[in-house]
Amino acid sequence: MYADLSVETFMNGLIKRNPGELEFHQAVREVAESVIPYILSHSKYEHAGIFQRMTEPDRSIIFRVVWEDDKKNIRINKGYRVQFNNAIGPYKGGLRFHPSVNLSILKFLGFEQTFKNSLTTLPLGAGKGGSDFNPKGKSEREIMRFCQAFMTELSHHIGPHLDVPAGDIGVGSREISFMFGQYKRLKHEFSGTMTGKPLEFGGSLIRKEATGYGCAFFMEEMLKNVGDSVQGKTCLVSGSGNVAQYCTEKIIQLGGKVVTLSDSSGFIYDPEGINEEKLAFVIDLKVIKRGRISEYAKKFNCEFHEGKKPWHLPCDLAFPCATQNEIDEKDAIALASNGIKAIAEGANMPTTIDAIKFFEKSKVLYAPGKASNAGGVAVSGLEMTQNSMRMAWTEVELEDRLKVIMTNIHSQCVTHGGENGYTNYVKGANLAGFIKVANAMLAYGVV
Ligand code: NDP
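# NDP complex -> structure
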């Protein structure tokens, strides 16, 4: 199919077809570097143009969202749903509400989701959506009106066997509830069309904890594989939202010491470590009061570093749990020179390609989000199963299932990414994720 398939020729074509979409280019390049050499030695994928097909979303839906603020001003936002790939199951992936949301960001997230969902071993396709709506500073009523307006259009494009959205940055259980309520009203039915729902109406235990817990479990597996553990390790966590909160909780339970958390204003450094009581303060601050992380520093009398990232502090382990591209090459060099042993990403694509290359060259264990943060979508998949069966598993059952899934993802990475005693988790996750989706696409023929 391709005259001279190489990463560069492939990327040149992709950039030409998707001009200006820098985040999307970055996400595809990271995968292309592992997958294209594999395709070159497996001609069935090359002849069928599978990777070219996998980098083009099935469809991207863009729509207008009109709502009224508390001062009766008419406000207009852009809404999106990128249905990336449904070869192995209904489209599945979160909704992000953040002013930075654009098509490039959602295509990078949807593309990553294809591999992540494949790794979970569950029958889940991939999608991602959201809006450039900024929830910060909005009243509860404004959030509700926005969510209802957003769902009024989105409802035409989703369904329990078609596309099942969940939360992401700026979309937690409050927003999911407003949207699910509107969907239910519009469709005249109760179905498991969204995940991350509260427990009272079809939500799953462990869903809110799943991404963060899964990330900590994945780190424990990486360390176990080299005869070590999280116990006694000093950990840097960024972010202070859903993923950061529950990643911190599980690290504490595994015996690690978390000394930082952050938000878009800066980071706090608590050298004594964040314990359960301090974490409860953070959860209340972020989920209920919707305050800033700097208030932690005031309350517990520690340092707040305004406008800074935590990566220059000494540590054993790092868990970037805020947003994309928060660790660049300079940060990676600082982490390595401070003796870091391993990084597990809670966020999606928080590490730049140069920084990943540096970690690989330095033989630092590095887990890409598509492997280490897959716990969230995995428990969303379990929420879909419970909704279909009209029943609910217990907390213990679900945490066990989550652990098994994370261990399984880890094993797939080791199988496909082992290189002379070092596991290249990027290569392992990309190849394992790719093979399953590619085989399904081959089986469907030319579609
Ligand atoms: P939340 O909205 O709950 O929290 C996001 C956190 O990241 C906040 O602390 C926020 O600070 C910070 N943040 C957001 N944007 C920036 C920025 N540009 N610079 C610095 N800090 C920023 O989101 P989640 O915890 O759900 O998501 C965090 C990451 O994890 C995202 O990359 C998401 O895609 C990924 N993820 C989430 C899953 C989930 O189940 N929720 C599943 C898998 C991945 P502030 O409040 O100041 O904006």
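# post-check
The first strand starts at residue 59 and ends at 68.
The radius of gyration is 21 Å.
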